[in-house]
Amino acid sequence: MAEPAKPLKGLLVRPMSHEDIATCQEVGSQAWSDLASRELGRKVKYPVRPRRIIEAYLWKEPEGCLVAEHEGRVVGVAYSHVWGKVGWFGPFEVLPEMQDKGIGTALLVGCERFLERRGCKVLGLETMSNNPKNLHFYMRGGYRILGSSLIMEKELRSGAGASSCEPSNPEEVIASIGDISALSRKGHPLLDYSRETEMAARHDLGAVLLARKGSRLRGVAVVHSYYAPNESDHASLRLVLVDPRAKDQEDCFNGLRKGCESWSFGRGRKRLFVRFPGENLELYRSFLSSGYNLAAANLRLVRGIPFSERGRYHLAAWAG
Ligand SMILES: CC(C)(COP(=O)(O)OP(=O)(O)OC[C@H]1O[C@@H](n2cnc3c(N)ncnc32)[C@H](O)[C@@H]1OP(=O)(O)O)[C@@H](O)C(=O)NCCC(=O)NCCS
């Protein structure tokens, strides 16, 4: 566990409430605008994270969304996510003028305690590879670099190609929760993506695609596009999992990918982003041949028992 730094006098870490949301949006915007402005050497204003995604995180993990309060003011925010026995946190944000006072560490300890209470055996996160502060922050808390997380981007044009996969409605997704859990465990015995998928469906964060053969669930994909079109022109492929025992994995994966591209394009999105482990060369080649370009690479860090996503067609974004 991260060592609690000399605690700032009067600092309180507590679960977020719905009344905190507006302040948390502002903390996030300030933290990311400051980081981007320093990196780019010019003033940058980050878009405010939409209320809808914060409400969704609160629905998913009410005790795992934490705020740090100092003298009655929210000065930091962190969101935890439980995927079976694998837990991760992000976004993670402290007001610029309150950084380097141990507030991030106090939030990190809060997230770790929550995830461990929930039985997570692997704790992880993604961060930018070019940020020494963040790397120090997590590595001194016992996190080791698992590998890179590649971020690829595709410009969406009309011809996404025919796909057999259509988005499912929320009722279908909720009725498939047991199947999504079982499919997750086929991907890795520690994983369960069912609540993540249910959150996307219930909170209208984008689209959920379920690939079935008869009654058998062979694959799932979740694409997010919750920013208003005037604030962001892109969608993000958050999760794809194809049954590693299925014979037609490639077809299933391509059907899900094309379905997500068509859906995103139909919603006026101009670009689709994906993130996946850099060690998966097959996935890299597959995206490359489907019109994606490499945009950036982050680092994925973990603590706990050995873990990495298994399966040729398995990707999940550890970034909020
Ligand atoms: C990352 C973040 C949450 C950390 O919060 P914080 O309150 O500043 O964290 P703490 O004060 O608890 O710890 C900061 C540590 O980084 C160290 N640090 C500060 N600047 C550093 C630098 N340039 N290089 C290396 N280490 C640095 C501090 O010395 C401290 O380490 P120490 O306790 O071992 O001395 C905060 O910087 C932030 O909001 N950043 C912008 C958004 C972001 O990057 N979020 C994380 C995405 S994964």
In the CATH hierarchy, what is the class of the largest domain? Alpha Beta
Q: In the CATH hierarchy, what is the superfamily of the largest domain?
A: Gcn5-related N-acetyltransferase (GNAT)
Q: Work out the number of β strands.
A: 12
| Rg of Cα set | 19 Å
Low-confidence stretches: none
Instruction: Return the average pLDDT rounded to an integer.
Output: 95
CATH architecture term of the largest domain: 3-Layer(aba) Sandwich
**Terminus-to-terminus distance:** 22 Å
Order of helices and strands: EHHEEEHEHEHHHEEEHEHEE
Helix percent reads: 25-40%
Q: Return the domain count.
A: 2
Summarize, please:
The chain has helices spanning 21-40, 51-60, 103-117, 132-139, 170-175, 177-187, 194-202, 249-266, 281-289, and strands at 11-15, 65-70, 73-83, 86-94, 122-128, 144-155, 206-213, 216-224, 234-242, 271-277, 293-304, 314-316.
